Amino acid sequence: MKKRALSAGRIGLLLILVLAALTAAGCTGISSSPGGGSGAAVAEGVIFVSPALAQGGGGFGCSTPVTEGRLVAVNAESGVQRWEATLGSPAQSGGFGCSSTTIPVAVYGSPVTAGELVYVAGYNGKVYAINAESGVLRWVYPREGNLDPIVGGVVVAEDRLYFNCSDGKVYALEAATGDFQWEFATESEQKIWSTPTYDAGTLYVASFDKNLYALNAADGTLKWAFQSEGAFASTPLVYEGAIYIGTIDCRFYAIRASDGTMQWQFLAEKWFWTRAVAFEGTVYVGCFDGKLYAFNASSGTKVAEFDLESPIRSWPVLAEDRVIVATEAGKLYSVDTATNGLALFADLDETVYAPLAFSDGVIYVYSQEKNLHALNVATGVGVWIQTID
């Protein structure tokens, strides 16, 4: 395995260079970092979230230690923190009397829970499995060294954990132990920033190489590949026999899950980052053009279009019979799926990149200001707010 200890500066430079190349693909509205963020996972009354890194400057040739990434568990009812687990490992000593620093572990993909474990993947190229009750580390992959950066989240199904990597490969591990099962190398081994999607024995993987891959989840063999006009950075939605996904060349596709042929497509003004949601034959997806689109899932006919006046990076959620969506500017909107009526749900006045989460009548939002908000889904009124920095 390749060994990496990327500095925060090198991480930022890498992301700027990558996204500058993406901008050349023809769409505008692309930022200088992955456009998502770590959202919250909710299970059995506990919220799991990975806060942003805190890092300091240096002086006299020495670097101030970089705070390690963390996974934090919060009581869903009260917002009180239960435990935190440190992600990362010590880096080499800086020399000249400088103390050792630690490898920064930015986390962009949301945690995932399965059984007694919660899983999270880091930009440092490692996947962590942590006991959900105690916060104790169960295993880490790879055991030694690091893979290339992991931007998306992980998926757990069939007792396996699946994740995509910036080395252009898809990995499958045994979920209980972290033991390697198989890997699949995409066509040109370009970066993969999306989270894989599992459905009925098939793993769907969207790549920068403009391909959407359908893999046999048991052994990683290729079933089919669909080539788009532009690179994929978003995560697929599987709904009623089709895959719905957007690209950075501003297209949104419906692709047949059976054979990978295109069912329909839509061209927007800017690129798609968010994963779509679907309800009763309608697919909803947010766009960097500040609009939330609603399409007939079968025909691609545009049912509704809502101009929310701010880019949409956060994944929306289906909350009972409504779609809740957040803009980058921190305004949350509610769409009635029966009438497609739009209403302002809440105005946080904070920046929101991370996917939303919904559980037991509460919407959870983690902002770039490091605040975790719990909002009553019926009223939009805040239940509690907890700063997690």
Q: What would the keywords be for this entry?
A:
Methylamine Dehydrogenase, Chain H, Lipocalin, 2 domains, 4-stranded antiparallel beta sheet, 34 strands, 4% helix, 42% strand, globular, disordered N terminus
Describe this structure in words.
This protein is mostly beta strands and 389 residues long. The protein folds into two domains: 1-14 and 22-55 and 68-91 and 102-227, YVTN repeat-like/Quinoprotein amine dehydrogenase (Methylamine Dehydrogenase, Chain H), CATH 2.130.10; 308-389, Beta Barrel (Lipocalin). Helices cover 4% and strands 42% of the residues. It is built from one helix and 34 strands. It has one helix at 8-23; strands at 41-43, 46-49, 58-59, 62-63, 69-75, 81-87, 112-114, 117-121, 127-131, 137-141, 154-157, 160-164, 169-174, 180-185, 197-199, 202-206, 211-216, 222-227, 237-239, 242-246, 251-256, 262-267, 277-279, 282-286, 291-296, 302-307, 317-319, 322-326, 331-336, 342-347, 357-359, 362-366, 371-376, 382-387. It has a four-stranded antiparallel β-sheet with strand order 1-2-5-6, with no helix packed on it. Strands 7-8-9-10 form a four-stranded antiparallel β-sheet, with no helix packed on it. A hairpin with a 5-residue loop joins strand 9 and strand 10. It starts with 7 loop residues before the first helix and ends with a strand.
